[in-house]
Amino acid sequence: MALELRQHLKLAQQLIMTPQLQQAIKLLQLSRLELLETISEELQDNPLLEEESQDVEPEQEDRAEEEQPVNRETSVSEVTIDEKAKEDFDWENYLGDYSSGSKVRMEREERRELPAIESRLVQKPSLDAHLMWQLHLSNLSEAQKEVGTMILGNLGRDGYLKATTAEIAEMAECDESVVEEVLHHVHSFDPLGVAARDLQECLLIQARNLQLEDDLVVNIITNHLRDLENRNYHAIVKATGRDPEEIREAIDTITGLDPKPGRQYDEEEIQYISPDIFVYKVDDEFVILLNEDGMPKLRISPFYREALSKDGNVNEQAREYIQGKLRSAAWLIKSIHQRQRTIYRVAESIIKFQRGFFDKGIAHLKPLVLRDVAEDLSMHESTISRVTTNKYMHTPRGVFELKYFFNSSISSFSGGSVASESVKERIRQLVSNEDPQKPYSDKAVVEKLREENIDIARRTVAKYRELLGILPSNLRKEPVWGTKRRKRK
Hints:
- The protein is an alpha/beta fold.
- The chain contains 23 helices and nine strands.
- The protein is extended, with a radius of gyration of 33 Å.
- It starts with 18 loop residues before the first helix and ends in a 13-residue tail after the last helix.
């Protein structure tokens, strides 16, 4: 069979992501802080884009007051942008439409006096820096301080020593007894328990430095730590021969010690949430306000707009550059406005579906999937997924991520369904109200939920319990210490 080359014509449709559409989709899935960072970068890169001054002229204020907020009756479609602008497009009228502020109702918070910048620009000391400061102030020799530096350099995140004394002695080229001596000195550093090699040594360091006169605490840590972890208190009472009340007091002291002394100097910074949406209840209605705090109002620079409108004063190369930056700035402003409108509509739809949650709490949260909101707004599920990613809503019941309101359903015996988050909340309530001496097992929780018409498996209860950070029933059980032992005759 001979091989030959042939040409064929084939007609096919293909979806092409234009740069403008890619930009709109990217802005849609950004969080609020990421959006502010993107706008800041665009302001630096695009000379035609500038931030509106807060000093607005009276004529502009009158025009802004005439602008109405988002109409709830108006449906907002997905982010769709034409691939190409017409060559004879009237850019001047286009700029007039998008150089003004957004018509979406935003929140305006009153300015508050901030503390002095000196009191805010403070770096949290690290564990290594805190310990090195104490090492340099100690009375050790230079050789011992060098060994101490190696010890501190081998500490883990929780403050435990990750290397053996033999390994440190080999690195420092000294005797292991010198390392033990320096390590004993480091054990007196703040925080107590740092540089311990295991949990037992960490607790013993803290107990001895607290100068506990009673040796019962040291005895339990040294010989009965496993029983303490398993809450086998009766074995400790039997082994020590001490009164149950004394054992209880000693256990309270041990549980008050810090098993991870280095975590208070954790270098991970707390990421504070800046809500994108604020929801307030006014009478019987919920009002949605978009967070505008720190959000710059963008416009096209009047200087370049005037330069572009003058014929003959700008050469062809400069005009082409200005028009390119002009289109980029206009698309950015349009994408931001459409992003805000889409978020507003998605939040409005969520409130409509989850009205019971906003009125009565988590127990009334309904099962909801992305398709429900997508069909309500005539959008694609992927668009709803992008809108709800890294977006937070401040409600009268707390701050929640938008994805929190979308959860799976659990069937009930009556044929209906219950939201998984509502079931988790009910499990948390059952455990919080249980008898500490007779905690509910997973099987007992299943039976309690079935009494409330919720059909759930035991392994699902165990999974939800772990997600809630609730210990198994055998570890939640509190001991029955009873009265003091009777003396033998």
